[in-house]
Specification:
The chain is mainly beta and 128 residues long. The protein has strands spanning 2-7, 10-13, 18-26, 33-39, 46-51, 58-60, 68-73, 78-83, 92-99, 117-118, 122-127. The strands form 2 sheets. Strands 2, 4, 5, 6, 9, 10 and 11 form a 7-stranded mixed β-sheet that branches. Strands 1-3-8-7 form a 4-stranded antiparallel β-sheet, with no helix packed on it. The termini are far apart.
């Protein structure tokens, strides 16, 4: 079992920055791809970013490319999402997820079904 706990959400003005953290416990996720998703009110959960097990490979949704950066520290079992130039449309609950299934080669999961563990989420509100 893997437990994921997100933190770092809050209220920020448009143009500001936030850094989200996702701390993993239980079974090690050092060999797992990790991702961030978000869900705005009245909308479906959507992919934001993912990182492979080593941290060397990343993939982003077009809507956040160039503004958000995903990274990980396997020694701390923590994944981060640095969010810059925030916009009101970034307002959502942000979820961390782990894909603990082994894959051959570089695999950057970007759909909900790829992930088997999820955190409870942290709320981000961007005011205009």
């Amino acid at each position: 079992q893997v437990q994921l706990v997100e933190s770092g959400g809050g209220l920020v003005q448009a143009g500001g920055s936030l850094r989200l953290s996702c701390a993993a416990s239980g079974r090690s996720v050092s060999n797992s791809a990790m991702g961030w998703f978000r869900q705005a009110p009245g909308k479906e959960r959507e992919f934001v970013a993912c990182v492979n097990f080593s941290g060397r490979e990343t993939y982003y949704a077009d809507s956040v490319k160039g503004r958000f950066t995903i990274s990980r520290d396997n020694a701390k079992s923590t994944v981060y999402l640095q969010m810059n130039s925030l916009r009101p449309e970034d307002t959502a609950i942000y979820y961390c997820a782990a894909d603990t299934v082994a894959h051959a080669g570089v695999f950057l999961p970007n759909v909900i079904e790829d992930y088997d563990y999820w955190g409870q989420g942290t709320r981000v509100t961007v005011s205009s």
